[in-house]
Amino acid sequence: MPSSIPVILCFAAVACQSCSLRSQYNYRAEPDPRYSEYTIGPDDDLHIAVWKNQELTCTVSVRPDGAVTLPLIGTMQAAGKTASALQREIAARYKQYVRSEPDAISVSVSSIKSYQFTVTGNVERTGLYTSRTYLSALEALAMAGGPNRFAGSSFYILRGNPPRRIPIDLNRASTPNHAEQNVTIIRGDVLVVP
Q: Phi then psi for 83, rounded to 5 degrees?
């Protein structure tokens, strides 16, 4: 019986160490896209309106390479830019064709299709998911049907290149005291439920 005490203490030490590692993660350092202008991505639909030039006004889809093709000015990169940055760039390129007026050109995202993330592991429905609104980690997990009966009480998000692991404890993330663990999903995140 006394020989089992060191083994129990060893397991307790490992458990405490993993808990402290989880609580040491700086969740507040993760980006929150809800507080910045939307970044255009592939498959998004854009509406470009040119004042007093109906023939230049169009709705285009961002191609997989991130580019769009517009009348007169041809192909230009749209993915990775905000609508306001793209508007300034289009205005500069149309300057030789269109009378320069303040706000003569507007760019809006008419349909969001590039906000995608993957859920894999011990969930009811693994796969690639798309949303028109920003989701928290727990909402994204719910879209996949939630953890299945083989899942543990935690999961992680792979984010960035090279990927970094964001650990999330299901019980803690669902409480107001640890809401920072319920991070906002960004485009390209992979949720892994071991």
A: -60, -40
Cα distances from 122 to residues 15, 30, 157, 194, in angstroms, run 22, 25, 14, 6
Could you tell me which CATH number the domain at 45-111 has?
3.30.1950.10
- Tell me which H or E stretch contains 119: strand 116-121
pTM: predicted TM-score of the whole model, two decimal places: 0.82
Cis-peptide into 162, omega within 30 deg:
yes
Distance between CA 16 and CA 7 in Å, rounded?
14
CA dist 92 → 72, 86, 120 (Å): 13, 10, 44
Q: Which CATH number fits domain 4-36+114-193: 2.40.160.20, 3.10.20.90, 3.60.20.30, 3.90.380.10?
A: 3.10.20.90
Tell me the per-residue pLDDT of 44-94, one tens digit each, with 9 for 90 and over: 999 999 998 999 999 999 999 999 999 999 999 999 999 999 999 999 999
Domain residue spans in the chain?
A: 4-36+114-193, 45-111
127, 118 Cβ separation under 8 angstroms: yes
From residue 36, how far is each of 53, 74, 123, 128 by CA, in Å? 31, 29, 31, 24
